[in-house]
Design a protein that fits this description.
The complex is a heterodimer of chains A (117) and B (116).
Chain A (H helix, E strand, L loop, with lengths): L2 E3 L4 E5 L4 E3 L2 E3 L6 E6 L5 E7 L5 E3 L5 E5 L4 E6 L8 E9 L8 E4 L3 E6 L1
Parallel strand pairs in A: 2-12
Antiparallel strand pairs in A: 1-4, 3-9, 5-6, 5-10, 7-8, 8-9, 10-11, 10-12
Chain B lengths: L4 E3 L2 E4 L5 E6 L6 E7 L6 E7 L2 E5 L7 E4 L6 E5 L8 E8 L10 E2 L3 E5 L1
Parallel strand pairs in B: 2-11
Antiparallel strand pairs in B: 1-3, 3-8, 4-5, 4-9, 5-6, 7-8, 9-10, 9-11
Classes of the chains: A mainly beta (117), B mainly beta (116).
Chain lengths: 117, 116
């Protein structure tokens, strides 16, 4: 069965430090992968997505992610974290597909990011 | 703002009562999804509509839950005889869904349900 694992429940970094959030997926075919951010009281906002092609994907707010098929990973990175990045981050893989047409998401359990001033 | 909207944003109810949530998707998005998110977890898929047709339901959606999208526009999610375990954030998302790579889902702010 398809699944997404985010091994780190909480991560704390200092403002200005680099950030890497881990995501591992289990999916038989070529995965469609997403990273979303959720701030308190807010809905999920898309940071970036990977469908195919270049394995290094650029997103909004200075985030990027790298798809590594050999490691079944899609880690999110940011070179310099800002205090406003404090939020919960979710990795997701799309399942269902071309024949069923459902394209529902399977989410990881999330990583809560705390930023120290 | 033409994003996904959900009402109400918060709902507190007593066990055994019925509740109904509404989702207004982005105009012209023909795909609509409901997810449930409990504390410390990622959202979990509940059900999916393509236009007015409900095409898939998760095993999480017990017979106390029913969802509709009568005219292919807004959707409602009703929970009958609520239980404390139903307390969660209920998220709605829509997508244009015209192709496999055109299914980015846009999420609403959610409805937080508390069952006392």
């Amino acid at each position: 069965a398809q699944s997404v694992t985010q091994p780190d429940i909480h991560i704390t970094v200092s403002e200005g430090a680099s950030l890497e959030l881990r995501c591992n997926y289990s999916y038989g075919a070529t995965p469609y992968l997403f990273w979303y951010v959720q701030s308190p009281g807010q809905g999920l906002q898309l940071l970036l997505k990977y469908f195919s092609g270049d394995t290094l994907v650029q997103g909004i707010k200075g985030f990027e992610a790298e798809f590594k098929r050999s490691q079944s990973s899609f880690n999110l990175r940011k070179p310099s974290v800002h205090w406003s990045d404090a939020a919960e981050y979710f990795c997701a893989v799309v399942t269902g597909g071309m024949t069923s047409g459902t394209y529902k998401y399977i989410f990881g359990t999330g990583t809560r990011l705390k930023v120290l001033a | 703002d033409t994003g996904v909207s959900q009402n109400p944003r918060h709902k507190i109810t007593k066990r055994g009562q019925n509740v109904t949530f509404r989702c207004d998707p982005i105009s012209e998005h023909n795909r609509l999804y409901w997810y449930r998110q409990t504390l410390g977890q990622g959202p979990e898929f509940l059900t999916y509509f393509q236009n007015e047709a409900q095409l898939e339901k998760s095993r999480l959606l017990s017979d106390r839950f029913s969802a509709e999208r009568p005219k292919g526009s807004f959707s409602t999610l009703e929970i009958q005889r609520t239980e404390q375990g139903d307390s969660a954030m209920y998220l709605c998302a829509s997508s244009p869904g015209t192709s496999a790579t055109d299914n980015e889902q846009f999420f609403g702010p959610g409805t937080r349900l508390t069952v006392l």
